[in-house]
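Weekly structure sync, notes
Attendees: PL (lead), two postdocs, one rotation student
Agenda item 3: pending single-chain targets
PL asked that the sequence for the first pending target be pasted directly into the notes so everyone works from the same version. It is reproduced below exactly as submitted, 143 residues in total.
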Amino acid sequence: MSANPKDFFELTTEPIDAGKVARRVVLPECGATVTLDGYVREWTRGKQTLYLIYEAYQPMALSEMEKLAVKAHEQFEIAHVGIVHRLGKLEIGETSVVISVSAPHRQSAFEACEWLIRELKRTVPIWKKEIYAKGEKWVADEK
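Predicted structure, written out during the meeting:
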């Protein structure tokens, strides 16, 4: 099974506009769109983050995002999924990932969006390096 042909999955080094991503998943049969705008925070586990660096194995990352969308369509009553993840150096406050899900009803959109970010962090080959004032660290999936 393949993803809905209107679903989309992208990696970019350019800033992401969460509103534009959200508008791309709106369909006439839907009553709700839920969008996660994940961005760089300044403090993590008591350490001050200066910036992040994201890297990915791009062909596999895009393929895995599509697989997640297929699973989301199977598990939740949703219409459309869009996932855009940024790569490269990101400053505090910049968006790193946007996931938008449209559905006939909001509960399914909320549930699918939550599941997608959790599974994306767990399975998609995108790696995050946190740069601190005193050191740096490659970070595994942390909830």
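Discussion points:
- The two ends are 29 Å apart (CA to CA).
- The domain at 8-139 is CATH 3.90.1170.40 (Aldehyde Oxidoreductase; domain 3).
Action: rotation student to compare against the earlier draft before next sync.
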